[in-house]
Amino acid sequence: MDSDLVIILGAVIVMLIVVGVSINGIVAKVFDHENAAAGGVDGSLDRRTQDIAARTDMIEDRLAVLERIATDRGQLLTDEIEQLRVEAKAGEDGR
């Protein structure tokens, strides 16, 4: 009877260890994912996040120009359109 108890106790201990290690791994992955989503502990961003941030900044800059164009009147609007044409031509010549 004592040998059966030792085998059962050993099996229970092994199962508890396996469950504990599994839970620890899951919790570690959840915290790693949360840290990565928040920009990491040290604030570093991965390459894809940096690309998205750069594109977002570019879109915001373009939106600001479009808002100025939409709200400007008369000569200011003409000047802005002409400036954009000059920049576009300079960009094409630079390629």
Strand content: under 5%
Q: What's the shape?
A: rod-shaped
For the termini, the CA-CA separation is 86 Å
Low-confidence stretches: none
Helix content: over 70%
Write down the secondary-structure element order: HHH
Largest sheet data = none
Q: Based on helices, strands and strand pairing, what is the structural class?
A: mainly alpha
| Whole-angstrom Rg | 31 Å
- Extended strand count: 0
Specify the number of helices. Answer: 3
Provide mean pLDDT, rounded. 82
Outline the fold blueprint.
Layout: H1 2-37, H2 47-71, H3 74-94
Q: How would you describe what is shown here?
A:
It is built from three helices and no strands. The relative contact order is 0.04. The radius of gyration is 31 Å and the shape is rod-shaped. The termini are far apart. It has helices at 2-37, 47-71, 74-94. The chain is mostly helical.
Write a brief caption for the model.
The chain is mostly helical and 95 residues long. It is 86% helix and 0% strand. It has helices spanning 2-37, 47-71, 74-94.
Which key features would you list for this structure?
mainly alpha
